[in-house]
């Protein structure tokens, strides 16, 4: 059985890797062949000087992706 400090250390490493991955995605996101913020299913309403944007499809895809990644990491 792992001690609480070992568990906390592993969590901090995983969070650091996750934050690094998000930073790289933001840094190089415009060079990817697909655009996560402009998928079919994302809702955009433009009226005059008002724009409403709701990334529905992007949110669903990211939720599924993060669920799969976290289920693999925390599988027992």
Note the main attributes of this structure:
76 residues; alpha+beta; two-stranded antiparallel sheet; 57% helix
Question: What report would you give on this structure?
Answer:
It is built from two helices and two strands, in the order αββα. It is α+β, with helices and mostly antiparallel strands. The longest helix has 25 residues, at 4-28. The radius of gyration is 17 Å and the shape is elongated.
Tell me the structural class. Answer: alpha+beta
Distance between the termini: 13 Å
Q: Note the overall shape.
A: elongated
Give me the strand/helix succession: HEEH
Tell me about the biggest sheet? 2 strands, antiparallel
Task: Supply Rg.
Answer: 17 Å
DSSP strand content: 5-15%
Q: What percent of residues adopt helix (DSSP H or I)?
A: 55-70%
Strand order of the largest sheet: 1-2
Number of helices: 2
Q: What's the helix and strand layout?
A:
Layout: H1 4-28, E1 43-47, E2 50-54, H2 56-73
Antiparallel strand pairs: 1-2
Q: How would you concisely characterize the structure shown here?
A:
The chain is an alpha+beta fold.
């Amino acid at each position: 059985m792992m001690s609480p400090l070992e568990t906390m250390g592993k969590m901090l490493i995983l969070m650091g890797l996750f934050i690094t991955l998000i930073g790289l995605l933001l840094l190089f996101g415009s060079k990817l062949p697909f655009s996560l913020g402009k998928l079919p299913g994302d809702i955009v309403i433009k009226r005059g000087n008002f724009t409403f944007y709701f990334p529905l499809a992007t949110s669903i895809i990211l939720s599924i992706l993060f669920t799969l990644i976290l289920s693999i990491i925390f599988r027992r």
